[in-house]
Design a protein that fits this description.
Oligomer: homotetramer
Order of helices and strands of chain A: EHEEHEEEEHEHEEHEHEHEHHEH
CATH topology of the largest domain in chain A: TIM Barrel
Strand order of the largest sheet of chain A: 7-8-9-10-11-12-13-14
Number of helices of chain A: 10
Helix content of chain A: 25-40%
Largest interface: A-B, 50 and 50 residues
Number of domains of chain A: 2
Distance between the termini of chain A: 42 Å
Largest sheet of chain A: 8 strands, parallel, barrel
Number of strands of chain A: 14
CATH architecture of the largest domain in chain A: Alpha-Beta Barrel
Chain lengths: 340, 340, 340, 340
């Protein structure tokens, strides 16, 4: 960590300030020039509070050289994290050289719908079934999901098809209903719901953590750090588009997140092109791009009848559109050396 | 609401589609041209699901003419909402031609600190005391606030000074501890925490609802609609900066929000320049601008010793800096015809 | 085009307004409801000035259904545009099912440098050589490019290797020096330099038009429309990253632009991952993603010695890094059915 | 300037690298720790190329402590720049404690229009007349301005009213026609048109330089530095809104720019609320906020008949709306201690 002091700071104040910093467990090197004094903080700076440092009267600028996350970082855990999900008597692996396809409808609507979609995406080669039971909706007047009933329907579809399931948790008070959900999704709007993250850090459940609409990669990794700090190491990071000025698409898919997160962290990275663009016709192109960028998997919305979907129909593929996409995605993943 | 159909939609399909829409309680006018057919939906369109409409095979584009919020809208409630807070035997009014100054530290740290700051801001003319007990922090390793102990210290400061208090709630499970808190703050990261909003909609407590970092004014009003739909009408909207590419300031204060929200809605609008810019020296200029733009009040961070603040010291004014600002803010508010 | 009138507009004013609009060559259908009147404008609306319409006292909202560009649009020219560049006695095609690789240094620095890089990228399979002679630099104190001397060096490299060349024009007064440049690049900062676009619309030269940092896809297509309206039909659109809040990368590559532009327009789309991310190690992942998303080619920075590069060294690949990337890009392009 | 080296850089390489840097005229202090080596560059770092430094194999991160602009910076020129414009036999001052009101139509349309508007805004207390003759328009099919004829009409209005005039230059080849224009406006889209800036740096003409839609304050100051480096010191900086995700307003006015630019630089700062929000009804609130934030003036669109305006009618005030605004702006400016 580097601290540039304000011009004209007298040497004795500089020394006194350096001593205060050294009491926090770092070594301080002072570079005093004609017009500018710079302090180099050497050692474990993870406990130094950057904001507090910036608030000091003597301080002009602060540069953090080490990342502020630790357990999420690649140096802390050089190997790729491998997440193992029991599925139909076997084990599905996420990360560590595999490519996973998660597919299903935005929201669970009826037994027929979810079982039908589950069967179709399984036939087409999906590895996981997604479906929303508790839905975050911008309007209080929109359909809010079937809730616990929706989760039960998902579990029925899991039994019928053997596909492990992914579903979103919005409220820690619902956690008991998620016992048999294989992967708990934390949505973009809850990425910085810190009380929720703290609770889930205590559980031994895989978490798919979606990037917030206005969150940097560093903030996403800090949110993962909340889970890791609690002891939960089964985390999937999910890029799902950020908010920008461009309104051609619903959000702007930031595929730099894939190589960026994989370099900074050991956690697997899933891409959700459906929510990123919000357009069914564009989803295949972005899904292929995600595979080519090195993602560990994709999550794709599939609905047997997008026109009657109770939410997000505009971005859902039909099973007929999904099947050839799943096939071609395996080819792209193979070019990247990934196995199923 | 206006729906443009895809080119080449045959008249009989258009008519059939219009009938389906009319079953949802609206009247549909069909404008059929050589190359384009347009449907005008007349009547109460608030229950029409825009997303679902967009997903229809026949639909090219949808334009919503009426706002998607209802109870938050100016036509629904033409008069300004007036919020009355009991304070020291009297009543403080927010909105409806008044100008309120909320001041205090980012986080409550000790009895001495919070009582000292409370006394100083009261002397300087503040109307409310703010202070954080539960703190949303990007890093799990940063100070997370004193929690319930912090709330107790705030209540002591309230007793000492008579200033009503504002403090942030992050988790509905803490709600009991907020019984004597006068205004509950919902932070920017929780603006779309829908389960939390639904719960607070059931309570009779004034809520200061902060705009999310990536939220449009419309989304802020939809979040307020969650509270209003539940029956809670005591809502203060708070502009606190949005995230943009500019990194000179921590966020970009969007003062258009003030005239924009006041035109669209009857709810009072408070501006938080401290969190928007994150720079103490810039805060007075932005606070004055907020008053001139027509805000119903400002919320300003004040700390007796910013250098030792456990969070956000960089953006805190000292009581010595706050006092002349509070005085000049009253002059700006007076130019806008506002009383204390 | 759809126009929603303000509530309470009397029928006689509505009719008078419709008549004024009809004088501009469109047919107006009036849908009058209890609370809202909607006008549907049918016919050629490309000459209707949307801004002016919005300024009318009676007008509440305007929705444009047809795109505001015409010659750049897919309906106007359903076939993909094919651009043919003479190269070494043969012809190189851009667009129409091919995949082009443009490579070379950010700026031309010396005869040795540019000839060496040209030879190496040709060996590795590049189709075009890029190199900057006139450089747009944020600081007046940075290296501004070799100017006309740089163009001459590029032409020497072209002679040596047979690779056609791409170079940026910043000032129309330099146009004569670009006679033998095969493709003129218009940089992101000049995308809306309308006098420059008008001049280039008059020339018969292929133009690579880069998307502005804050430009929507629609604005990029409108900039292309300036060229097309002047008669120049040889246009390559180039996605090179937009400005967002994320600072992990220099800009945010928006790969949605590839399927989006190819659906809206017939013009070929090139992706520049080097300028988008500004990081050499990330460039290969994004280049592959661009190919998978359906781009007609990529433009990649290659420098024989990035550490001594006079600009943008951080984002340049070495020839050793470029060669295997070019090879694998051909495989991705082949999966997309593209030929060289 | 501070350079953090990659972990594990051997001491002898560090010393060799430091020597190379010292050859560029700075002194390098080396702080070598167990895991991290940091170089402090002391002295005149303005000629050190940051990008090139970042491209070095040994370099992990770079922090610039001094601003990259020099002549535009407050330390270089501690006093406020005062710009004096001859007007009607007297002199109008911009900056240095004054508050200037620039008003007029987006584009000059006819002698009647421009003279009428000029008379009305003068009566209301405007100091300068603005009017566009050469217009940057997104669409090639929109009205492009009257060109030189428009400038002549502006000069007629100047003669009639004595108001000095402001008009936009888009192409250096038109410069001769701007001889009698008092202040040349460089529009947001040309803020980084470096050849144009270089040319204008050679002229002795006041320049109103608008911030680009995606430009940081630092980039705006670097654009001003191009003008200053050429010798032109008469520069007005203009905040006119940046592009964000919010679409309630056309752009997002960033009033932090006012205190930010005035702290960093000695140049006067003008705010253009009309282009920022694009809404006539919102313009007064933002204009007042600009005055309260400490701006040196505002630029406001006024049109005698907004409904027939050939561009930007939606954001134009009528003279009847402008007059009371101009009056109240003087009161806000007076609160800030500014004279006319």
């Amino acid at each position: 960590m580097v601290v540039a002091l304000k011009k004209g700071t007298p040497p004795e104040e500089t020394r006194a300030f350096a001593e205060v910093l050294e009491q926090q467990g770092v070594t301080v090197h002072i570079s005093q020039g004609a017009s500018q004094t710079i302090l180099g903080l050497i050692g474990d700076t993870s406990r130094i509070d950057e904001e507090r440092l910036r608030a000091q009267r003597l301080v002009e600028k602060v540069l953090r050289v080490q990342a502020p996350y630790k357990r999420a970082s690649r140096p802390f855990h050089p190997e790729d994290t491998r997440i193992a999900i029991p599925a139909d008597g076997k084990v599905k692996t996420i990360g560590a050289g595999t490519f996973s396809i998660i597919a299903g409808p935005c929201s669970v609507e009826s037994p027929e719908q979810i079982i039908r979609v589950a069967q179709r995406v399984k036939e087409a080669g999906a590895d996981f079934l997604r479906g929303g039971a508790f839905k975050p909706r911008t309007s209080p007047y929109s359909f809010q999901g079937l809730g616990e009933e929706g989760l039960e329907l998902l579990l029925t579809a899991k039994k019928e098809t053997g596909l492990p399931i992914v579903s979103e948790l919005m409220d820690i008070n619902h956690i008991d209903a998620f016992d048999e959900v294989d992967i708990i999704q934390i949505g973009a709007r809850n990425m910085q719901n810190f009380p929720l993250l703290k609770e889930l850090g205590q559980r031994k459940k895989p978490i798919l953590l979606k990037r917030g609409l206005a969150s940097t990669l560093q903030e996403l990794l800090m949110a993962a750090e909340y889970l890791l700090a609690g002891g939960n190491e089964q985390i999937l990071l999910c890029e799902r588009g950020i908010r920008t000025f461009e309104d051609f698409t619903r959000n702007t898919l930031d595929l730099s997140a894939v190589p960026g997160l994989k370099r900074e962290s050991h956690l697997p990275v899933i891409v959700d092109p459906s929510h990123a663009c919000g357009l069914a016709w564009m989803t295949p192109a972005l899904a292929k791009a995600a595979a080519a960028a090195g993602a560990d998997g994709v999550m794709i919305e599939v609905h047997n009848n997008p026109e009657t979907a109770r939410c997000d129909g505009e971005q859902s593929l039909t099973p007929e559109e999904f099947a050839p996409l799943a096939e071609v995605l395996r080819k792209y993943a193979a070019l990247e050396g990934r196995t199923r």
